[in-house]
Structure formats: structure tokens, C-alpha cells
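INTERNAL AUDIT FORM
Audit reference: QA-55
Scope: verify that the stored structure record matches its stored sequence.
Auditor: D.O.
Record contents follow.
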Amino acid sequence: MAQLVTIIDMATHIYDEYMEEISRDNDAIVQAAIDRAIAQAKGYCSRFALLPLFGNPAKDPTFVDPQLKGIVKDLALWHLLQLSNPNIEMNRAQAAYEYAVSWLKDLQRGQVMPEGWTYHDTTTDSKPAEGNAVEYSSLPKRRNHY
């Protein structure tokens, strides 16, 4: 698998024949929509450890949250529907996309606390590479007396 959502998983959100018609039997187009949806979701989930939630091409996700998986499918469906819309209710797909984005924004703000998600490990002392550090300072505060 090596990904949170695969092309086969999209069957819960769109019929196979519609997906094939939109993508013209090109799985690369569907995979590109899924990849774009995962990248969009990762942008909102940046305060969490992303590898257990999303996995990567070499490693499967270790924690699969059904809510996150459904959100990513809604996003992927919307990105796929941008190509065309044969016999698909665009209003319903758009409402699902807008809900997915609003849920991700609530997650980003901390208003949604999913159970079992791990945060980034902030205990390690990670120093920036030499030459990439930014330093700032200021002069002592000046006091004027009249």
C-alpha cells in the first residue's frame, strides 16, 4: 500500500466507471489527484507526526484514522472532478470538499483533537545547519530625561 489512500480506496466515493471515464483509464491521473489531496492534508496536519498518519512510498502508515482517510478521499475526489463531471453531482462533491477543508482548518487551529494522533517530537535539540541560522539582536533600551 505505502499510502493512506489508494486508487482502490476511492471506490467508496466514486464509481469505478465514472473514475475511468474522467481519467480515460489512466491511473496516473487518479494517482496525481490522490497525491495532491495528501499533500493538501499534510499542510494542515503539520503539527502532528506525519509519517505514522500518511506513510511514505517506502513505509505504510502505522496509524490509520478513518476520519482522515475520508477527508483525503473527499479532497482527491474534488481534484479528480476538476477534469470533468459526467453524471456526478458537483454540488454534493463541492460540499464534501468544503467540509473537508473546514475540518482540516479546525484541526490546524486546535479545535479538533483526533484520538491517537501523535505530535512532532519536540524534545530533540535540532540545531539548524551551519550557515542557515538567523541571528538577531538590539541595542539597550534608551531612556531620555528632560
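Auditor finding: record pair retrieved intact. The chain is about 45% helix and 0% strand.
Action required: none
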